[in-house]
């Protein structure tokens, strides 16, 4: 029987010397402290602002949540998963054969998401979440004739005409709703199946990110990032919204393009394009995933996958357009609907920075420290990437560029004004690509940083009711 071989890079290796300006723990702690301070200020200012006039439309800003200290059935499991990853995650990530590591990381992420969701109990935490008045499952019966529903989809986006869509259906292209219609058609209807589907697909994004990081920046950095991805704080929201599913689809699009660019795989390029096309019909904000996708090509210095990628990607808008739904006609109506609701009340002056505080809670303080190292390395990484006569980017430079692309996409979404609040949930497709910045942190402190990550998620899930 043939045993699974491991590459040399899968063996625990000595940590390379950190470049000047990136060595030492103190700057990392300062960066984490700045992140914590941002959250504290956003909480204080947000609470006072909301109490004075209610404009923020959030009871516990910067999160869309309400104060509700509690424990639940998932509490022992969540504590167990967190303790196990902190104690054994780094060592296992260093030593497991690669394919087994991918499966283990995916399974661990699912266990983490399920346990956090079950703090609220099965019904309240999973089965009910996608059945509330704003959600997709409320309109399943209106898609008995799918082509007819797509042709009339834009007629029900704006509030006013009879039968306008619930908030989340109106706020997304129909690909999101169609997913749950198709689940219902194959016998997996109802909130429980929908919740499990989103959790499993959302957790799979961990494996996708690891595959991409390995292809672009090497196995050593992918292994370092693995425990942090499996124990991501934004798992609090992955188990309670369809955005976890969106994040998983987007992650696999990027991962498959990385495989296509490094292994010259036509099939991977086509699959990546198809998933990107579908991603754009899951959320109006996710065409911004084009930034990390373009960065994959920049890092690998190839345009070979572009033609098959674009050909496959265009099949999705072509199919929707021929069926009767035009993305470019729906988006302006979505903007109108957005400002008819809370988006028209919530002040940009708070949320343009309050969103970043919510993002800090979602990605954790270890990621804040890793982003400091990313930004420090950005000038040299960018110069190296833009000068094609220079050698290919180092693993650290490649990882820096990938994380930076996700950060720029997130900032673009923030500045647009179309993401005022709820970003702890909405920005999950970008958060996945910020977490690998933790691979740049020193090896010796990994357990401490993992503990901080788990602590953020556990505190949020036990102290507030997130509503998603």
Plain-language structure description:
With 468 residues, the chain is mainly α. Strands 1-2 form a two-stranded antiparallel ribbon. The protein is built from 21 helices and 2 strands. The termini are far apart.
What's the gist of this structure?
The chain is mainly α and 468 residues long. It is built from 21 helices and 2 strands.
Task: Compute the number of strand runs.
Answer: 2
In helices, the fraction of residues equals: 55-70%
- Structure class: mainly alpha
Strand order of the largest sheet: 1-2
Task: Supply the key terms.
66% helix, single chain, mainly alpha, 468 residues, two-stranded antiparallel sheet
List the helices and strands and how they pair.
Elements (H helix, E strand, L loop, with lengths): L25 H28 L12 E2 L7 H21 L2 H20 L4 H6 L18 H6 L15 H4 L3 H12 L5 H27 L1 H12 L4 H4 L4 H21 L2 H15 L9 H11 L5 H18 L3 H14 L7 H16 L1 H22 L8 H21 L7 H4 L1 H7 L11 H18 E2 L3
Antiparallel strand pairs: 1-2
Helix pairs in contact: 1-16, 1-17, 2-3, 2-9, 2-21, 3-8, 3-9, 8-9, 8-11, 11-12, 11-13, 11-20, 12-14, 13-18, 17-18, 18-20
């Amino acid at each position: 029987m043939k045993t699974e071989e491991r590459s040399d890079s899968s063996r625990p290796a000595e940590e390379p010397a950190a470049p000047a300006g990136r060595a030492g723990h103190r700057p990392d702690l300062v960066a984490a402290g700045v992140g914590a301070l941002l959250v504290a200020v956003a909480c204080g200012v947000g609470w006072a602002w909301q109490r004075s006039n209610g404009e923020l439309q959030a009871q516990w800003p910067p999160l869309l949540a309400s104060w509700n200290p509690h424990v639940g059935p998932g509490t022992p499991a969540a504590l167990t998963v967190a303790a196990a990853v902190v104690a054994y995650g780094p060592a296992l990530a260093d030593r497991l054969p690669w394919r087994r590591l991918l499966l283990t990381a995916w399974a661990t992420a699912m266990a983490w998401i399920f346990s956090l969701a079950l703090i609220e109990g099965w019904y309240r935490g999973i089965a009910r979440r996608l059945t509330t008045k704003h959600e997709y499952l409320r309109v399943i019966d209106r898609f008995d004739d799918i082509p007819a529903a797509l042709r009339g989809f834009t007629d029900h986006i704006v509030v006013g005409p009879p039968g306008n869509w619930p908030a989340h259906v109106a706020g997304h292209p129909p690909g999101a709703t169609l997913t749950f219609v198709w689940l219902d058609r194959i016998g997996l209807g109802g909130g429980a199946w929908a919740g499990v589907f989103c959790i499993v697909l959302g957790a799979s994004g961990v494996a996708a990110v690891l595959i991409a990081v390995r292809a672009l920046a090497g196995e050593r950095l992918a292994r370092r990032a693995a425990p942090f991805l499996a124990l991501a704080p934004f798992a609090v929201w992955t188990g309670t919204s369809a955005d976890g599913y969106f994040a998983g689809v987007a992650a696999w699009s990027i991962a498959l393009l990385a495989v296509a660019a490094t292994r010259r795989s036509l099939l991977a390029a086509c699959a990546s394009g198809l998933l990107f096309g579908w991603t754009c019909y899951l959320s109006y904000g996710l065409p911004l995933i084009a930034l990390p996708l373009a960065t994959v090509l920049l890092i690998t210095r190839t345009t070979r996958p572009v033609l098959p990628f674009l050909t496959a990607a265009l099949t999705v808008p072509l199919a929707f357009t021929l069926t009767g739904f035009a993305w470019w006609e729906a988006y302006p109506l979505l903007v109108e609907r957005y400002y008819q609701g809370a988006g028209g009340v919530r002040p940009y002056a708070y949320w343009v920075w309050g969103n970043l505080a919510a993002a800090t809670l979602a990605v954790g303080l270890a990621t804040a420290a890793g982003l400091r190292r990313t930004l420090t390395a950005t000038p040299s990484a960018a110069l190296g990437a833009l000068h094609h006569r220079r050698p290919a980017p180092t693993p650290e430079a490649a990882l820096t560029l990938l994380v930076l692309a996700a950060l720029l996409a997130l900032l673009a979404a923030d500045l647009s004004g179309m993401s005022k609040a709820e970003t702890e949930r909405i920005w999950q497709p970008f958060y996945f690509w910020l977490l690998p910045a933790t691979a740049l942190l020193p090896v010796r402190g990994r357990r401490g940083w993992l503990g901080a990550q788990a602590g953020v998620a556990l505190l949020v899930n036990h102290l507030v009711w997130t509503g998603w």
